[in-house]
Structure formats: C-alpha cells, structure tokens
Prior knowledge:
Blueprint: E1 6-8, E2 13-15, E3 26-29, H1 37-40, E4 46-49, H2 66-79, H3 99-124, E5 129-134, E6 137-142, E7 147-153, E8 158-163, E9 167-174, E10 179-182, E11 187-188, H4 189-201
Antiparallel strand pairs: 1-2, 3-4, 5-6, 6-7, 7-8, 8-9, 9-10, 10-11
Amino acid sequence: MDSTSLVMTSSTMMRLPSPVMSTSMMCFSSPVMSSSPMMSASSSSAVVATPSMMPAARTPPVALPCSWTSKSFASAKNLAGDESDDSPVTGKQSAQLTEKEFHAVSGDMLDQLQEKIETFGEELDIEGFEVDYSDGVLTVQLGSKGTYVINKQTPNRQIWLSSPISGPARFDWHGLEHVWVYRRTKAQLLPLLEEELSQLMGKSITLKD
C-alpha cells in the first residue's frame, strides 16, 4: 500500500506501514459492511472518511461593536415608547409628592400660565388687564370680565382655582398623564382655562406649550 491508512474496528486497531502518514484521510468504525476483503475480515467494518464526507466547519459568531449594540438597544426602547422620562414625579399622584416635588410641578404650571396669559393679554389689548405672580399665587385681572386666582395649596399638594365663570376648583396632580385634574368633574386645568378664556375674550386661546 502506497499511503498510510489508519483502520479502526470495534475490537482492534491496525496500522498499515507506510513511509508517509496521510493527513487527508480519517477512519472510524461503522456497522456498514464494506466490499473490501480487508474490511470484511473484521466483525465490524471500517469506513474511510474523506474530506468531502466531513461536516463543514462552523463559522464562529461575529462580535458586534459596542457602539452598534448600544444604539440598537436605545432605538428599541424608543420604538417601544419606553423613552425616558426620568422625572421622579412620573406616575405619582398628588398625595405621593414630596413638598419639593410639588413645588417643582406646580411652579412649572403657574410659570407656564403666567407666560401664556401675559402674551395673549398684550396681543388682545384688554382694558384693565393685569397679571401678578408672587408667593405661589397667580392673579389674572381681565377688567370688567372678571378676575382669576390660581394658587398653590402646599399642604394638600393641590392647585386651587377661583374662576369668574366656573367658581372654585381644586386640582390634583396625575403623574401618568402629567396633568392637573379636578376630581369632581374630571376637568383638566389647562383645557378648562383655555375654554373659559376663549369664551371671555371671544377668540381662541391656547395655553399649552
């Protein structure tokens, strides 16, 4: 035999002498019978495995760059709507707010109202119009049309409203929607004021950012 073959059976292993060991052939035991006289002499035949019979090598997994995986994770969060409102007041109700949190959210609301009301008041040139905001109390004078008082009520974690149209109302913070809601009527502070001021001014008034 010109090339070396390693033959393995279930009970014996024979090496056929040759000056050169072939690296292209491997042998393993198999129950399949062979027509070769040498292999049929054994109780279990040996099958010679050639490279074409060997399973293909698996491609190793490719490591993704950290920057790519981070961006993909961030995109997935955005698509899922889980963007990140890290505000500590998100999901809280008025009674759950700390005093610091209450002053933050109620102050933002009153600052926004002051800015928007001053803007439309100057544009409409309302006689007797005046806005004053101090110590958590926002007072809006509309001349003969009436006066609004909107103020913080810290012990109750509420914003109180006195309206010339709807009268008094107390608004609680709803953290999931980020709105102030009057529990008795379910009215929200901004839409209510927009509706009433539009009625008084005879023009559409927008107070939202």
